[in-house]
Amino acid sequence: MAVQTVAGNATTAPVDLGPAAALSCRECGERFELGPLFACASCFGPLEVAYDLPTGSPEELRKRIEAGPDNIWRYAPLLPVPADVADKPNLNPGFTKLVKADNLARELGVTGGLYVKDDSGNPTHSFKDRVVAIAVEAARAFGFTTLSCSSTGNLAGAVGAAAARAGLRSCVFIPHDLEQGKVVMAAVYGGELVGIEGNYDDVNRFCSELIGDPLGEGWGFVNVNLRPYYGEGSKTLAFEICEQLGWRLPDQIVIPIASGSQLTKIDKGLQELIKLGLVEDRPYKIFGAQAEGCSPVSAAFKGGHDVVRPQKPNTIAKSLAIGNPADGPYVLDIARRTGGAVEDVTDEQVVDAIKLLARTEGIFGETAGGVTLGVTKKLIEAGVIDPTLTTVVVNTGDGLKTLDAVSATSQATATIKPSLDAFRAAGLGTA
Ligand SMILES: *Cc1c(COP(=O)(O)O)cnc(C)c1O
């Protein structure tokens, strides 16, 4: 099969993406000029951004970061973005709360410190604003005029909103049967939203074809031809978690897996912080979380395989429903190298975990958050996650987008006439 590696580059001028120096192949290491490339011309391996990273002292860099804006642009020296990025029209995501979850910790028997990194606080209420913000800078640098993506839901909304702010056109693609909350959140920003009759893997295949077609000329697909840049946005989760812990690595992090990009790049971010001397180099473990109804990476991990066998997704965790995850093998590497694990939970456990987080910490996460906390609980009970160590659970999206998951069991306690007698008669007010 011929692999399309270059697509629709609308400009040939040298691009300014700050410290980004080149693209390099994750498999064979071959380097390429910065451009809308995503696969190595020699071995078809995925491309990653390579940097000329800052050379000053760690103290200087730490100070420079701390003096920066309260969003991901405080880490601009470590991202493929121009130095003046914060002055451009964008959604300025990031620097979301790291919540010390003491009630949840008590309930789960965690004594080493349990934190929830709550990315529902981003502009379009999921972690996807981080990756899209970086992809927008690449799109601007390469002269793209339309922003696009294949999405499991949250990405479509993040692209629609970012394009609106940046003054770009948008046309985004989703599986036709997503939650209403995701559809409305994607459509409201005014771009084209196209439902594809099929699952995410069908949507993704369709987008790959569109990239190779004249129709797709001048289009930046944030997670396809801009994927190397897009991925870098997830590093900011690693940067923030460490900075918010007082420039310290957590011992254990639990991260949901769809394509596996986020988990892979969080690890890359942690490695960069170590390399730069911004945190002390000590061991950390990375755990991946999937829903049982779409658990190709978890199945490979538990089966001891290096190859991820595609699945047909069937789960309420639709934002994670990628049956053929592009970064699956790298997730396996990272989980094994760090001494972590990949695990999955049933839809019922997902719902229980959403309600557990809401009940204990006042945080309403989406189904992906339920997957991640559900897996955390399961791995603590199995003795795989050590409750005496510092643990961070990433909540990647907002429960308002996946109301259906909990609406059957989360309704008014009672409906009564507006009188105290009725209230008393119903035996209420004692909860
Ligand atoms: C997209 C998404 C993820 C993870 O995506 P990756 O493809 O693995 O990077 C996790 N949570 C939510 C809510 C998402 O929308």
**Secondary structure category:** alpha/beta
Structurally, how many domains make up the residues? 2
Rounded to an integer in angstroms, the radius of gyration calculated over CA atoms is 21 Å
The major sheet is characterized as: 6 strands, mixed
List keywords for this structure.
431 residues, alpha/beta, Rossmann fold, six-stranded mixed sheet, four-stranded parallel sheet, 36% helix, 15% strand, globular, disordered N terminus, binds pyridoxal-5'-phosphate
Tell me about this structure.
It contains 15 helices and 13 strands. It folds into two domains: 98-125 and 234-407, Rossmann fold (3-Layer(aba) Sandwich), CATH 3.40.50; 128-230, Rossmann fold, CATH 3.40.50. The chain has helices at 58-66, 102-108, 128-142, 154-166, 180-187, 200-211, 227-232, 235-244, 261-275, 296-303, 328-338, 347-361, 367-381, 404-407, 420-425, and strands spanning 20-25, 31-32, 47-51, 98-100, 114-118, 146-150, 169-175, 192-196, 219-221, 252-256, 285-291, 341-345, 391-395. Mean pLDDT is 95; it is low at 1-11. The relative contact order is 0.13. Helix 4 runs parallel beside helix 5, helix 8 packs across helix 9 and helix 10 packs across helix 11 (328-338). The radius of gyration is 21 Å and the shape is globular. The chain has a six-stranded mixed β-sheet with strand order 4-5-13-10-11-12, sandwiched between helices. Strand 7, helix 5 and strand 8 form a beta-alpha-beta unit. The chain has 431 residues and is an alpha/beta fold. The site of pyridoxal-5'-phosphate (PLP) has 18 residues, from helix 9.
